[in-house]
Amino acid sequence: MKKAYATDTLDMSFPGSDNFILSQVGEHERSLAQVAGAIAEGKAIDLNDLPTRLEFSGPDLPKPMPRIFARGVFLIVAPDVAEVLSRFDLGVGHVWPLECSDPGGYAYFGVYVGEEKSSWQREKSTAKRPGHKGKFRMDCLSLKRGDGSVVLGPEALEGADLWVEPSHSTVLAFFSEGLAEALMDLSLADELPFWECQIDE
User: Fold this and answer.
1) Contact predicate 106/99, CB 8 Å
2) Are 106 and 132 in contact (CB under 8 A)?
3) 120's torsion region: left (phi>0), alpha (psi -120 to 50) or beta?
4) What confidence tier does 74 reach under pLDDT thresholds 50, 70, 90?
5) What is the Cα–Cα distance from 95 to 81, expressed in whole angstroms?
6) Is 142 exposed, middle or buried, given 0-12, 13-18 or 19+ CB atoms closer than 10 A?
7) Can you give the pTM of this predicted structure?
8) Residue 41 burial class via C-beta count within 10 angstroms: exposed 0-12, middle 13-18, buried 19 and up
């Protein structure tokens, strides 16, 4: 049976994650706040306006350093995760290197999840709860208990391997089975909590 996966990026937080700050370098048509707002509303953006620098403002770097986490509407990933993502179809999404100027010697890439699919089956999905501005969030507690489900239509099997659904908050990202399995092979289970989605064909 074909399937897909979803993750709530708010579950990727860790102690000290708020100390990582994304910023733009140089002049841009849109501020970072405007770019983030456009992404949250599902609007197209200019890739030249994406943030280019990642700085750490805390007293001590996390140990071990995270390999994937979220900062606002963007994902921040380690080079091995970026390499896997680059092998898959991201649609209008984008992966790019970030300038990390702190003395920690770490390296990260930014990920913009820009592709949209309208595959979520609202009536058949039971693991849902109200989100911001009329959108939905996954009910992860229901999924953990095993009494909830996320159901997608066959459209989920077409096109990009990483996407968002316009009916859901942008904190929810969806992955094709192939991409999810490739990321699972990196032993990211503790940092990237996947939830299996049923495909209603």
Assistant:
1) no
2) no
3) beta
4) very high
5) 10
6) middle
7) 0.89
8) exposed
> Which pLDDT value is given to residue 102?
67
- Residue pair 86/95 in contact by the 8 Å Cβ criterion: yes
For residue 17, the 8-state DSSP code is G
The DSSP line for 105-163 is ----EEEE---B---B-TTT--SEEE-GGG-EEE-HHHHHHT----EE-GGGGSS-SEE
DSSP reduced 3-state for 179: helix
Provide the residue type at 63 as one letter.
K
- % pLDDT > 70, the chain: 98
User: What residues have CB less than 8 Å from 44, skipping those under 6 apart?
Assistant: 38, 92, 114
Give SS3 for 51.
Answer: coil
Unique residue bearing structure tokens 């706040």: 33
CB count in 10 Å sphere of residue 123: 6
Assigned token pair, 39? 């992404």
CB of 156 within 8 A of CB of 117?
Answer: yes
Q: Give the number of other CB atoms < 10 A from CB of residue 197.
A: 26
